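If your schedule permits, I should be very grateful for your opinion on a structural question. I would ask you to consider whether the tokens describe a fold that such a sequence might reasonably adopt. Thank you for your consideration; the sequence and its tokens are set out here.
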Amino acid sequence: MNRREFQLSLIKFAVFAPPLLRGPHASASPDNATLYQRAIVIDSLCSPFLDQVTAPSPSLVAVVQQSGITAVNYTVSDTTFEGTINTLAWLDALVEKYPDAFTIIRRYSDIARAKRENKLGIIPGFQYTAFLEEKPERIEVFRDLGVRIMQLTYNVRTAFGDGCLEPGNAGLSRAGVAAVKKMNEIGVAVDLSHSGYRTTSEAITASAKPVLISHSGCAAVYAHPRNKPDEILKVLADRGGYFGVYLMPYLVASPTVPTRQHVLDHLVHAIDLCGTDHVGIGSDGSIQETVLTAAQKADFEADMAQRKKLGIGAPGEDRFPYVPDLNGPNHMEIIATELARRGQPSSVIEKVLGANFQRVCGEIWGTA
């Protein structure tokens, strides 16, 4: 069960609250607001909505569209082939119902077009690999269906390599090497967010194109299996790759609830280490604000217990899977403001907001 499935479980009790209201510490200066308005803003792992089964209401669509976010890498993969096809069908139906609000990103130029047209661009991506391992030729099939980002592993061992929770840390398999080569050939981005350290390192080296770590943290700031060590991040950057910092509890030791300042600690460390051209934000959340009720909290506990039983639950999954003061449609704008407060210049903030991810997409997909 991945983060998208947990969000699906929340919708049974979801309560919509206006998410654009900001607290006194969240407001942007006029200069930062102007920067945000002009920037390409890309969350490198994010769902538009908590519910990915039913069609959203027009009012919720309006809130998401007004977030200022240009594009998101949206997880469409399910545990099964059929479930993944159903999610892709849901996405197509969403765009058909709301063509003025959404567009599917299939090529580099679509990102700039989404910005011009004030639409949320959705980049279909995979986290699960099981149905690809069964039939590797499906990599090309799903590329033809619009999927442009594919993760090699999810936490545990797969036919392609070891995930980040696999104690053996066996690295990239022969099948994994072949999968990386195929993705390079057909213009699909290789994502290593949930891969083990050795798998991550070997895939970076095996890839002829830059790769993604779309949503993770810095192990040097807080050591956790989901976070990547400096030596990996440095090689990733040296080979032109991209690293997205997530908004997850794994940024800090339990029982501390993460805040925006923990996110900024990881972001600034990554910028200092990798350089300004390789870092961004992959929230691993949603644009729609999550509002937890008592029932949702109980459901969360059950979900975490199930993840632990399946062997895919990470250490520290005893806190809710988001950063409370970065929860909602304005999370990217708040981060931009906080980067300015930490002395980052506008040129760097604009890169972190989305230009870095846009650049690497062009290098992987081509710039048409």
Observations:
- The CA atoms of residues 4 and 202 lie 27 Å apart.
